[in-house]
Amino acid sequence: MDLGLIEPVAVRSDTLPPAMHTNAVLVGRDPVWIVDPGSPDREENERLAQQLARRNVGGIVLTHRHRDHVAGATMLAALLGAPILAHAITAEELRGKVKIDRTLAEGDALPLGGDREAQILFTPGHARGHIVLWEPVSRALVLGDMVAGIGSVLISAPDGDVALYLRSLARLRALEPKTLYPAHGPVIEPGVAKLDEYIAHRNKREHDIYMAVAGAGGGVSLGSVVDVVYATTPAFLRPWAMRSASAHLDKLLGEGRVSLRSGAREDISVYEETARFEVSRG
After folding, report:
1. Buried (b) or exposed (e) across 252-265, using 16+ Cβ within 10 A?
2. What is the DSSP letter of 59?
3. Is the pTM of this model over 0.90?
4. Beta-carbon contacts of residue 208 (< 8 Å; ≥ 6 apart)
5. Which of 23, 134, 139, 146 is the most exposed place for a label (fewest CB within 10 A)?
6. Which domains does the chain have, with CATH numbers?
7. Terminal Cα-to-Cα distance of the chain (whole angstroms)
8. Tens digits of per-residue pLDDT, 39-85?
């Protein structure tokens, strides 16, 4: 862990349980970049601005559009006089909510001081415009919501895409990172093991959902799939389980492994009420 170069600062945010904070990650020495200031609280942002008062701030970087990653961006930018940077997709999604001063794309680099730089990688899946920062010297990833140090990452259709998410995880795994700086929870080492864990978890979840459809003998609802696959999930988390299962079913539909007996794939939000799933034949 290179704390002189990368430092997570936990700020209170409106995030999903069990997390209560978002890590606003400080990356670089001269300049320093603030990644995902997700707190809407003025006190939290003033505390962060005070911590950075004597430093050369390059800007604020948003990994994606979700509120618990962007809620403090406008306030902190005003306090620091700093620009806000994000992927073009995120900029469009935040139009009228957060003004993006500069867009970032795959292959861009942010100077960190000396000969160090952070490379921008485009990693859609959790959100359409998701990006991460890769620092190759320390083999560190500042990776937003690609993985979490507490709880898990929700892939929620239609914004989330399980197929893209798995591809992005595999790409990050191929880098063989040493250290992961997630937006929620503690720093993770070794990074490869955590990415392997996430890939295995998603593949198992997909297998379980497919088997729940197959075991029902055809014409099974989303709610029935969730009853089987998420049987031990607390009741208050059921809405999130529904979203996650929808995203996995959408992947299976796209691959032709599962088909709709009734309902419309275009409206995932009504799967529970209208759709019946079955294993594709032939």
Report:
1. bbeeeebbbeebee
2. E
3. yes
4. 228, 229
5. 139
6. 6-189 (3.60.15.10), 201-279 (1.10.10.10)
7. 51
8. 999 999 999 999 999 999 999 999 999 999 999 999 999 999 999 99
